[in-house]
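Justification of computing resources. Each target in the renewal requires a structure prediction run like the one illustrated here; the chain below, 201 residues long, is used simply to show the kind of job we budget for.
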Amino acid sequence: MLDAAEAIVAVEGAEALTMRRIAEELGASTMALYRHVQDKDELLVALLDRSAARVPRGSLPVEPRARLLAVCRVMRDGLAEHPWVVGILAKGDLIAPSVLWMIEEIIANLLACGMNEAQAVASYRAIWQFTVGELVIAQGIAELARPPFVLTVLEGVDPRELPTLAAVAPLWRRARGGDGYDDGVAALVNGLLERARGQTS
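Resulting structure tokens:
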């Protein structure tokens, strides 16, 4: 059942996944599937968990800030491997138990960097939102079948009306095409740690 569900979401996205569709793929009745899962959400959690369990932990640095950033990258790359996962997780309702080790690492290392528990939890949420947002945008760009309209607009601004945008116009295409996740999450973490230091001093 999980193999059939994963094949559907991998090609058509989570919106195409229904219990009836899986039953058709398996040549079974819809009611037979409900002997294994309670509903579509339970099936999605099982799929998410299966995908998260495949994410390799690898060797992580010892120093807390470096370890934190390394885990963020592991999380980002693991999600990027399965684009259908991003849309589900962006809704903020479901979670895969196999991903809890990453959350543990992020919170533990934020604490080791000097945050209190409330700051660490709030900072994790900011890191998570940045990561999901970056993936949603990257996924949207990857799905475009034409040159991005936004680049046409940004590169064609009138320097008399928008002189600052005109000055940076040649930089948009390169910035859009690169992988800026590491720089972005590092800047976010640095800002969060600096703010936490200011709140506790």
